[in-house]
Amino acid sequence: MSRMFRLIKNEFIKTVRKTSTIIALALVILLAIGLVVVAKIAQVQSERYNFDFGTVEDDISYYQSMIDDAEAHKESDPAYKQNIEMYQFLIDNKITDDWEYEAIADAFSTNTEEVTAEDGSVSYQVSYVYSDEQRDKVKSFVVAKDWKGYYNFLIDKFKAEGADPNTYWEYQYRVDNGVAPPAGHDDITNWKNQCIFSVSSAKQQLASLGADADESDTAQLKDEIAVNMYRLNNNCEVNVADSVNYMETGELNFWTVLSISVNLLTIVGLLMILIAGSSISSEFSDGTIKFLLINPVKRWKILMSKYFNVIFIGYIMMFVFFLVVTTLSCILFGTSQLGAEYITSMNGEVQTTSGILLILRNYLLGSVSIVVMATLAFAISSVTKSSALAICVSVFSLLSGAGIVAVLKEALNQDWARFFIFANMDLAAVANGTTGFAHHTIGFAVAVIVVHMIVFLLTAWDGFTKKEV
Amino acid sequence: MSNAALIISGLNKTLGKKHILHDISFEAYEGEVFGFLGPNGAGKTTTIKIIVGLLRLDEGEIEVGGFDIKKNYEKAMANIGGIVENPELYKYMTGRQNLMQYARMREGVTAERIDEVVKLVGLSNRIDEKVGKYSLGMRQRLGVAQAILHHPKVLILDEPTNGLDPAGIKELRDILKSLAHNEGICVLVSSHLMSEMELMCDRVGIIANGSMIGVYTVAEMISASKTGTDEYIYETDSSEKASALMAGYNFTITDETHIDVEFPEENASQAMAELNEKLILAGVKLYSVSPKEKKKLEDVFIELTQSGGAQIE
Ligand SMILES: Nc1ncnc2c1ncn2[C@@H]1O[C@H](COP(=O)(O)OP(=O)(O)OP(=O)(O)O)[C@@H](O)[C@H]1O
Ligand SMILES: [Mg+2]
After folding, report:
1. What is the ipTM of this complex?
2. A287 contact B CB<8A
3. Which of A97, A338, B239, B313 is 20 to 30 Å from the Cα of A287, by its Cα?
4. What's the rounded mean pLDDT across residues A16-37?
């Protein structure tokens, strides 16, 4: 065992003393630095272009313009009087916040009835939806800025109507937990409000689907509710799961940078393939193979030490990449989000993982395809002694294998493409069921990978141990 | 003789479609320098590559220090040190780092041993420089250092004097002799120069066209170069007249005025004086009598290895 360790140490020293390895490592570090710095610059840029929500004065002048508009269209709008009254109330009380505006809009909402007189002329009868008493109550809540009172009023109203509790969940939640509705525009983007909005909208959709809705339609809504309730109950400001889908949210933060870094692992993989593809062939091209094989060590042991070293160096490079990205992100984006969790839900059951663990897991899953292709490069270079061929084939496979499978599957509808190694290397996609193949299980993918690895390694072994030097 | 450290029997090798080695067998003993001699393309390097495990042993048996290389590869190889063809080591590492690579692959090589070996091959001052900056001779020395690092019982060197200056060749010769004679190592050295072999080897195995011609001690080689007769060149005015008087002698007429005459070694001077007298008395004009040069070891080697023409097969 210690002998094997010494052999690997030899290979490790050989690799790190080569200038090309140092350059590769420098590239990895540069790539990591570049990613984080570019993300930070992009974030600063996007903050500068923050959407301008306008001031109280803007809102007031908007209300005034609505009044002028109503005056101008007296003839065509039978509810113009009520409109003017509402906007005047908004102006008088300088009401701009969401819940207050909505409360007033509801209080002043009207029904318009078409009345046909006996002589056949048509007129319109306008009436408030709310009673005068109700309207006065709402007005007084708004003037007193008493959102609790208003929400209790709403809850009572819904209850009296016998409405589905899902429809007025938000009011109940805010009253029960003392979470004030957004006041001022910044509060809309506040995470708690976002969570409440999500739950509320999901619950309302559930309510509208009804009790006998299809399981598949409701499952996603229920999961969304579960995740957001978990965040509310456990005070989780950040859900790393949102950042993993950074393409959808378009947001840039600590976790999106880490998630992007997982995708850049392929570039680190290319460098690993370079090392794997030249590990054996460089001994031949330098002529040092004779002095290597003259030693009292069986050839398969030398081969294994070379292979382990390649894998080891590859993981070192990936780890360095991860470390630089994480450290620099902590420096540039702050450490406040470091402890955040990855929160998902399956069938309404919430699962949480620490965000860092999740990213590490994704790194590990991402390393699978890199290791497989590095093994391929290793095998080709062992058989042909040509690093160029080994590197070309493996890099091509790493970059376009998934595309080839996609063409076979999507365009030509060839289901046997699932047996290709490329269809199985993205274990995360297999686990999520997004590979496009029906009943594609992790077990199947792992089996395909293992079979390929065994074939590659046996080929390398056969080529190396039988070679006449 | 002492124990055989290297036993080779019935070695056959085919590379591609070419049958290169035919039934090579020989033994080399502890404490001797064994010369492996043959012209270009004879199969020296091929044989050595098979012994050190670079080429597969197709047919035949090799035993190193008592271990069969097929059955006990690692133990057999642990008893071998060697250089094959050019000393190509890791150029991007220093000489010492190179030696440490080999030390890790073998058992029981300490840092002190590395220093000792480096001193022995005369590289102490340059050992911490990158091998890429070494001259051919320096790399050859480093190759030798690598080969003897782990106290092998059998040291195999393929044309080790290649690239060494005359002083270096002499040093190497002394090192190899001392390793063999003082430390009891079996040293096998290949070469195509008989003169080199004569100076350092105890025995010489001769190979030509992939077949073993024979194994001789250097003393045997020297006596083979002696024919038992001394030859003199007679220069006269007429070879015809002179030869008529030479009945009873072994002679060959080379041209009109020159005749080669052989005398038995034991009484060459006496016999020559008698013949001279005879010629002069008969009126033959004797201009000169000069000894013909003796056959050299090199000629013996060429005779032994050139059964056919001089073409490399
Ligand atoms: N890989 C190979 N494939 C086919 N033939 C080979 C191969 N290697 C060597 N040979 C042939 O084997 C024969 C012996 O070659 P070898 O290198 O053993 O000669 P050598 O005695 O070392 O000669 P030299 O003194 O020139 O080094 C030559 O005819 C050579 O052409
Ligand atoms: Mg040779």
Report:
1. 0.81
2. yes
3. B313
4. 94
